[in-house]
Amino acid sequence: MEGGAYGAGKAGGAFDPYTLVRQPHTILRVVSWVFSIVVFGSIVNEGYLNSPSESEEFCIYNRNPNACGYGVTVGVLAFLTCLLYLALDVYFPQISSVKDRKKAVLSDIGVSAFWAFLWFVGFCYLANQWQVSKPKDNPLNEGTDAARAAIAFSFFSIFTWSLTAALAVRRFKDLTFQEEYSTLFPTSAQP
Fold first, then answer.
1. Which residues contact 43 (CB under 8 A, 6 or more apart)?
2. What are the MARVEL domain coordinates in residue numbering (predicted)?
């Protein structure tokens, strides 16, 4: 550990966007953000169909409005969560207390693992509803590419959120080491 990258050693320093953009957890968060846009955008734009014989729109996933609703809800909430944690990544170097940093990283672990689970459920749910959809409900194959894109990017999101959680665990271990080091050697400089 050089220069207290995770502790109070760099707290209060100037904001460096280049360093922020190069961090793996920031890159994964941006990728997760883009994936969530693809999922909810695909479903909102082309996930609802209407037939000439019916006056109401129906969900492309087996006419199940809950499937479209789940995909849109998870996508929008993941989008907002990514923005929140990107803001935390920007603010993180300014946090001087190791305990506050640990709380931020612990929340990142929990939230990222929770979102990986939600994306897994979403992938399974959308794929299942797509599999049992009847061809007669969509004879012109409208929106099929968007439906498949939502399923695919739900699958990819499982891995991006899981990797984000794994990186947060690594950050937590670094913070725990730094806290123990400062407890053992209170008068020496940060590791």
1. 68, 71, 72, 75, 146, 147, 150
2. 20-173
What pTM did the predictor assign? Answer: 0.84
CA distance 48 to 60: 6
The residues, ordered by sequence, that sit 6+ positions from 17 with a Cβ below 8 Å of its Cβ are none
At 184, list the tokens: 């053992």
* Rounded Cα distance, 182 and 191, in Å: 8
Say if CB 79 and CB 23 are below 8 A apart.
no
Residue 59 in contact with residue 42, Cβ under 8 Å?
no
Are the C-beta atoms of 58 and 47 separated by less than 8 Å? no
Give the separation between CA 165 and CA 159, rounded to whole angstroms. 10
pLDDT category of residue 3 using cuts at 50, 70 and 90: very low
Give which of 7, 28, 13, 74 is closest to 168, Cα–Cα: 28
Q: Note the pLDDT tens digit of each residue in 19-45.
A: 889 999 999 999 999 999 999 999 999
- Return all residues near 178 (Cβ < 8 A) that are at least 6 apart: 1, 4, 6, 7, 98, 190, 191
Burial of 99 (C-beta count, 10 Å sphere; 0-12/13-18/19+):
exposed
